[in-house]
Amino acid sequence: MAADQKTAPTANDSVPEAWLRTEVARHPQRPYPMDYIETLFTDFSEIHGDRQFGDDPAMSAGMARFHGKPVMVIGNLKGRSIKERVLRKFGSPDPEGYRKALRTMKIAEKFGHPIFTFIDLAGANPGLGAEERGQGEAIARNLLEMSRLKVPTIATITGEGGSGGALALAVADRVLMLENAIYSVISPEGCASIMWKDASKRQKAAEALRYTATDVKRLGCVDEVIPEPKGGAHADPAAMMQLMNEHLQRHFAQLTAMSAEQLVKARYEKFRHIAQFYTTA
Questions:
Q1: What is the dihedral of CA 79, 124, 177, 277, to 10 degrees?
Q2: What is the DSSP string of 192-218?
Q3: What is the pLDDT of residues 36-67, one digit of tens each?
């Protein structure tokens, strides 16, 4: 699906499809994780703090109901205004955010509640303070604990899914990805800066990274690609919410019919075989 009129290149431009989708994924009016949580879930009651250092304004988590059934929901927060974006570090969580998310997951496991995560972040906060407080350890801990949770988990990448910051919320039984979302170990700007010492070659990097929904699905890193309305999710948010609801309901029904042992075993097998490739002599 091409970008909408505001972001689409002219007919004479030669722009990789991957970059067009990147622009759509980053559109400022695109629905953010909290938009999905507020629309598709009811009775949301937020949990604050990680019980170690403080509360991260870039991460929201809490209890809710999905079609009347108790669940736990987690999503990073980006903000719409400049002031709010600065407060939330443009959606890049600190270690406190990941520890709050893990605390929420452990509560879910204790009470047998399924978990939904919504992801739209370029990466975890790389600031000095975050590193001093254990950013790497917090992400690694989430990867370990999510891999062995005994409750159903559904992760959805709604915009950008960047590096370990995104993966720390995406070791799930079902990983879904919107049609115009991107999922990668690094941003195209970061990749271009490393590979060619020139961030302006971001379009070339976007094409090389193979991070569009089609590419990521082919590698087996996501379980399903959710289609978007014409022009992108921001062009028709109501239609996007309906599509999201239908897909979440279907996966939710499949996963809640499985035992804890089946969930853990299937999750283990899935992540052991993601993106495998073989060469011949």
A1: 160
A2: HHHHSS-GGGHHHHHHHHT-BHHHHHH
A3: 999 999 999 999 999 989 999 999 999 999 99
Tens-digit pLDDT profile for residues 172-214: 999 999 999 999 999 999 999 999 999 899 999 999 999 999 9
Q: Check whether 1 has a pLDDT greater than 80.
A: no
Distance CA(176)–CA(166), nearest Å, equals 13
| Closest of 8, 17, 4 to residue 208, by C-alpha | 17
pLDDT tens digit sequence for 251-275: 999 999 999 999 999 999 999 888 7
Rounded to whole angstroms, how far apart are CA atoms 137 and 95? 8
Q: Can you give the pTM of this predicted structure? A: 0.90
Query: CA gyration radius for the chain?
Result: 18
Q: Is the dihedral of CA 172, 173, 178, 180 positive or negative?
A: positive
**What secondary structure, in 3-state letters, does 100-169 show?**
HHHHHHHHHHHHCCCEEEEEEECCCCCCHHHHHCCHHHHHHHHHHHHHCCCCCEEEEEEEEEEHHHHHCC
Residue from 88, 75, 81 nearest 28 by CA: 81
Write the CB contacts of 30 (distance below 8 Å, at least 6 apart in sequence): 24, 120, 158, 159, 232, 233, 234
Supply φ then ψ for residue 95, to 5 degrees: -60, -30
Name the CA dihedral angle for 73, 78, 79, 83, rounded to a multiple of 10 degrees.
140
Q: Which two three-digit tokens encode residue 146?
A: 């999510």
The answer to whether 104 and 118 are in contact (CB under 8 A) is no
Q: What is the DSSP string of 71-102?
A: EEEEEE---SSHHHHHHTGGG---HHHHHHHH
Question: Degrees (nearest 5) of the Cα angle 117, 122, 128?
Answer: 105
Q: How many angstroms separate the CA atoms of 254 and 172, rounded?
A: 14
